[in-house]
């Protein structure tokens, strides 16, 4: 099973697309190299932090979604 996880992690790490995973609390648990390139953040900067701290999602009126219990995730 560990070999399978490593195989898929290797694929994700070599994509140009930014991919990140969050847990049920919105904390970032995985951040690939594509996300490094697109955002300027390194995985060591974001792992364990809530994605709202990094992306600050807004609604169409400019309201912070994570502050209004309207979290998009």
Characterization of the model:
With 73 residues, this protein is an alpha+beta fold. The chain is built from four helices and two strands; from the N terminus they run H-E-E-H-H-H. Strand 1 (20-22) and strand 2 form a beta hairpin. It is elongated.
Features:
73 residues; alpha+beta; two-stranded antiparallel ribbon; elongated
Draw up the topology in text:
Blueprint (H helix, E strand, L loop, with lengths): L1 H12 L6 E3 L5 E4 L1 H7 L3 H4 L4 H5 L18
Antiparallel strand pairs: 1-2
User: What is the C-alpha radius of gyration, as a whole number of Å?
Assistant: 14 Å
- Helical percentage: 25-40%
Percent in strands: 5-15%
Strand segment tally: 2
| Distance, first to last CA | 28 Å
Tell the overall outline: elongated
Pattern of helices and strands = HEEHHH
In DSSP terms, counting alpha (H) and pi (I) runs of 4 or more, how many helices? Answer: 4
Give the strand order of the largest sheet, numbering strands 1, 2, ... along the chain: 1-2
Mean pLDDT: 90
Enumerate the spans where pLDDT stays under 50 for 5 or more consecutive residues. Answer: none
């Amino acid at each position: 099973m560990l070999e399978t996880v490593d195989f898929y992690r290797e694929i994700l790490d070599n994509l140009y697309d930014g991919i990140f995973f969050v847990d049920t609390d919105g904390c970032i648990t995985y951040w690939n190299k594509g996300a490094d390139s697109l955002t300027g953040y390194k995985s060591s900067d974001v792992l364990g932090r809530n994605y709202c701290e990094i992306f600050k999602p807004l609604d169409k009126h400019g309201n912070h979604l994570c502050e209004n219990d309207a979290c998009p995730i």
